[in-house]
Design brief:
By secondary structure, the chain is α/β, with parallel strands linked by helices. The chain contains six helices and five strands; from the N terminus they run H-E-H-E-H-E-H-E-E-H-H.
């Protein structure tokens, strides 16, 4: 399982996502990164591998993504402390993995939960994310 997890992590870190492995990493990202932020909660599930990660990678290629200043990821079920700390930043949002969270000036402006990802292909997810970027940023 360790080799598979490395690949699941690399799927996002290889395209520029900062991996947040601890509470300190999450706090630093959330407090020190100015402007707009996108955080992806990664997962081992099939919808993460088949839709979420490919969809967000497609969205990265769109010019709308130029509006995002910082991107990061935590891995639910693996980096428990980091995931729990991130969830403290979104207390009114139910846990969901995989999922995407868009922040503008430290305010959560958009949530893309697992039930939006399930049953959707990467292109649909890309389109949804690009639309959110254009609406909220």
């Amino acid at each position: 399982m360790t080799e598979i997890l490395k690949e699941y992590r690399k799927d996002l870190t290889d395209v520029g996502f900062k991996e947040l492995l601890s509470s300190a990493d999450v706090d630093k990202f959330m407090k020190d990164q100015e402007g707009t932020k996108l955080l992806v909660i990664n997962s081992v599930c099939g919808c993460a591998a088949g839709s979420a990660r490919p969809g967000v990678k497609l969205a990265l290629k769109d010019k709308a993504f130029l509006k995002v200043d910082s991107i990061a990821t935590v891995f639910a079920g693996q980096d428990m402390e980091a995931t729990e700390t991130f969830r403290e930043y979104i207390p009114d949002t139910p846990p969901s993995s995989p999922s995407f969270y868009l922040f503008k000036d430290d305010s959560l402006v958009y949530v893309y939960p697992r039930h939006f990802i399930e049953g959707h292909n990467p292109s649909e997810i890309r389109d949804d994310l690009v639309e959110a970027l254009n609406v909220y940023l």
